Amino acid sequence: MSDIHNRIDAFVKLGAFIAQFTSNKKPEFNNDKEADFYDGFKHQLKLAQEHNTWFTNNNIQFALQNWADALTESNLKKWLSAYLIDEVTPKKVAIIMAGNIPLVGFHDFLSVLIIGHEVLVKQSSNDKHLLPYLAKYLESIEPSFKGKITFTEERMEGFEAVIATGSDNTSRYFEYYFGSKPNIIRKNRNSVAVLTGKETKEQLEALGKDIFTYYGLGCRSVSKLFVPNGYNFDDFFKGIFPYGDIIHQNKYANNYDYNKAVYLMSLFKLLENGFLMLKEDKSYASPIATVFYEKYDDMDSLKERLTTDEDKIQCIVADNLFDNEVVFGQTQHPNLWDYADGVDTIKFLLKL
């Protein structure tokens, strides 16, 4: 059996391990080692929630379910079948991870290892508990990973390529420090929804998932709506009504109150329903508890605008309007082959 098959098999087993934490039923174990790993990860989940209050149990569960669903043999083989993967000469690839949502850097981690490279990881302090433990589990089931996974909080050295995710600000530093090495450097991106006024109640309710999952902190979270002139927001507010409980999360509520006070003092015109504010604004990145909106005159002009701004946009949610659109309610369920910023990570890694 070739090394690539061993690596695929290891990640399939990791997916099964993760799946154990997406139900309330405690699994049965074949041996003490399995039980110890289970209890150990339970502890890391608790630490992750205590360390970062945005990482609620629901949000961590959502992220784990997505990875449990993605890491199946059929998914991994379908993803990798698009590439000619010979045995690579292992290079050390540095990954600088964001920390906005649980396990946000996992896709890069998976990509580097499954190709056969070594990985050097610098995590965000906001999301530092889950991945190192999953890496330990990987090493326990596939010994060939031992010595190929390193986590560091120090200055990164000895790497031959880098994948770095940050803000528009930090990307300038990344360019300065890592510009001489092969790199993928990701900046701020946001997701948008294009509405026509013909959306069904079900579509608008599904859009609520795209807006509120992870409290809107992900680059795949919809932070802006494009609506036709004369659009009536009543149906939109009815559609998102089921998500009203989000206001009971203290940090979200504090952001809602603070941003509302700032907007009102600045005499901005707002539409709101007690847990979400809509503000007319040309920007893409909206604050927590706020979604920006902009009116459009005709679809052709809007398509031209979104093409011009494509380097600022991660997903476009729409219904049969764009070639690369995402269905309502699906932005937070990317496939393995849905690459951040549209940059093919595997192709990049195979060229090293």
Q: Brief description of this entry?
A:
The chain is an alpha/beta fold and 352 residues long.
Protein described:
The protein is α/β, with parallel strands linked by helices. It has two domains: 184 residues, Aldehyde Dehydrogenase, Chain A, domain 1, CATH 3.40.605.10; 128 residues, Aldehyde Dehydrogenase, Chain A, domain 2, CATH 3.40.309.10. Helices cover 41% and strands 15% of the residues. Strand 4, helix 7 and strand 5 form a beta-alpha-beta unit. Helix 1 packs antiparallel against helix 5 and helix 1 crosses helix 6. It is globular. The two termini are 24 Å apart. This is Acyl-CoA reductase (LuxC). It holds the Pfam family LuxC. One of its GO terms (molecular function) is acyl-CoA dehydrogenase activity.
Tell me the domain tally. 2
Tell me the distance between the termini. 24 Å
Helix content: 40-55%
Low-confidence stretches: none
| H/E topology pattern | HHHHEHEHEEHEEHEHHEEEHEH
Please state the second-level CATH architecture of the largest domain: 3-Layer(aba) Sandwich
CATH H-level superfamily title of the largest domain: Aldehyde Dehydrogenase, Chain A, domain 1
Task: Just give the CATH class of the largest domain.
Answer: Alpha Beta
The CATH topology of the largest domain: Aldehyde Dehydrogenase, Chain A, domain 1
Give me the count of strands.
Answer: 11
- Overall pLDDT: 96
- Shape summary: globular
Radius of gyration: 21 Å
Spatial sequence of strands, sheet with the most strands: 8-9-10-7-6-11
Largest sheet: 6 strands, mixed
